[in-house]
Automatic annotation (TrEMBL):
DUF4470 domain segment(s): 15-109
Key words of the record: Cilium biogenesis/degradation, Cytoplasm
Segments forming domain Dynein assembly factor 3 C-terminal: 140-328
Key word Hydrolase present: no
Subcellular location: Dynein axonemal particle
Protein name: Dynein axonemal assembly factor 3
Alphabetical list of Pfam families matching this protein: DUF4470, DUF4471
Matches recorded under InterPro entries: DNAAF3, DNAAF3_C, DUF4470
PANTHER family: DYNEIN ASSEMBLY FACTOR 3, AXONEMAL (PTHR22118), DYNEIN AXONEMAL ASSEMBLY FACTOR 3 (PTHR22118:SF14)
Signal sequence, start to end: none
Biological process per Gene Ontology, one example term: axonemal dynein complex assembly
GO CC list: dynein axonemal particle
Length: 362
């Protein structure tokens, strides 16, 4: 069990997955041919999608259906996919990996990352609400969404733009929201929280094969919500993609409170930082890992982005006279036409009303 309240530690919004990235085409017993259809339920982030796309053969076609329980998670998946598919000519692989991981696992981000978030959110907002014959982003097709769902996504993207900037501080201080969750989780053990962090790391993570997670980095994340601190910059701007609204019962009335309601125990390192094909990153010396989960995450994400850029039909950006840096379209070219399609599915039975994104790639 966790050192605190287990139900509060996991949170009610799943911003990242609790398992390493997998190649979806190699997980099942059946071998897939040139075309495959895969359903992902509650994957929380696009780690499986990115790793599967990076390993696709030129002649393969893949349809991945992703069902999430909130539009905030859908919007975040779209953002992370958008950043991952930015052409190398627009953003270098190392810079893109930094931006991706900061948006992915940091509650507070640098000003440079905030600027990239603004550009991406603006483009996604246009792509979701665009009603012209030619979509603003040729990789995103939201025509299968209901209008109210498009409006909800657009509202979320615009909320990201209005949440904070260096000139306009966020109405919600992420440090205060994070500390509130920690106090709520630990209760009377808050004053001895360092011991609780050590217990969770040793007994829950290290004992299950996650020994590469460094204690100092894990404690920093538990205290401040900073999982990836890759530069000596200042992480002071609230990451709005990790904010959401949660309904509470107050004197018989439901009140919606906006804050951080995600995981504060397991950490974002589980998605990209505990497994790797490069065995040198998992070496130990005197029983201690020489590299950290942050190092492994950076290496894995860079390798994914390199594969996406170098595979046949790598990502390109259509050029036009009226195109600007803040409104670029990301296209995927291969042996067959390909694009990313966003779709809302309503399943019948136990999952009525779930949000489903249909990501189609070749």
């Amino acid at each position: 069990m966790s050192a605190g309240r287990a139900s509060e530690g996991a949170g009610c919004f799943t911003w990242w997955g609790f398992s390493p990235a997998r190649i979806l085409l190699s997980t099942g017993p059946d071998k897939f041919g040139e075309e495959a259809n895969i359903l992902l339920v509650g994957s929380a982030d696009p780690r499986h999608i990115l790793k599967t796309i990076a390993g696709l053969q030129d002649e393969q076609s893949l349809h991945v259906y992703v069902i999430e329980n909130s539009m905030e998670v859908v919007a975040r998946q779209l953002l992370l996919l958008y950043v991952a598919l930015i052409p190398q000519e627009v953003m270098g692989i190392y810079e893109k990996a930094e931006v991706f991981l900061e948006l992915f696992g940091n509650c507070e981000i640098r000003s440079q990352t905030w600027e990239n978030l603004q550009r991406a959110a603006s483009q996604l907002s246009v792509s979701v609400t665009e009603t012209l014959e030619e979509a603003a982003n040729t990789c995103l097709d939201t025509t299968l969404l209901k209008f109210k769902e498009r409006d909800e996504l657009c509202r979320i993207f615009k909320l990201w733009l209005q949440t904070s900037s260096s000139e306009h501080p966020a109405p919600i201080r992420m440090s205060a929201a994070w500390d509130y969750r920690v106090r709520q989780h630990l209760g009377t053990r808050y004053d001895s929280r360092k011991g609780c962090y050590d217990w969770d790391l040793t007994m829950k993570l290290h004992s299950k094969g996650c020994g590469v997670i460094n204690k100092q980095q894990y404690v920093r994340w538990r205290e401040q919500g900073l999982a990836f601190e890759m530069r000596e910059g200042t992480y002071h701007i609230t990451n709005p993609t990790l904010l959401s609204s949660r309904a509470f019962n107050q004197r018989g009335d439901k009140v919606s409170i906006r804050g951080y309601w995600g995981d504060i125990v397991s950490s974002p390192y589980l998605s990209f930082g505990i497994e790797t094909d490069d065995e040198s990153l998992l070496k130990t010396c005197n029983g201690q890992h020489t590299k950290t989960a942050q190092d492994v995450s950076i290496a894995n994400v860079q390798r994914l982005f390199q594969s996406l850029s170098s595979r046949r039909g790598c990502l390109t950006t259509p050029q036009s006279d009226s195109e600007t840096e803040t409104a670029r379209s990301v296209s995927v070219h291969g042996n067959r036409p390909s694009k990313l399609v966003l779709e809302k599915k309503t399943t019948h039975g136990g999952n009525t009303g779930s949000n489903c994104t249909d990501v189609v790639t070749c």
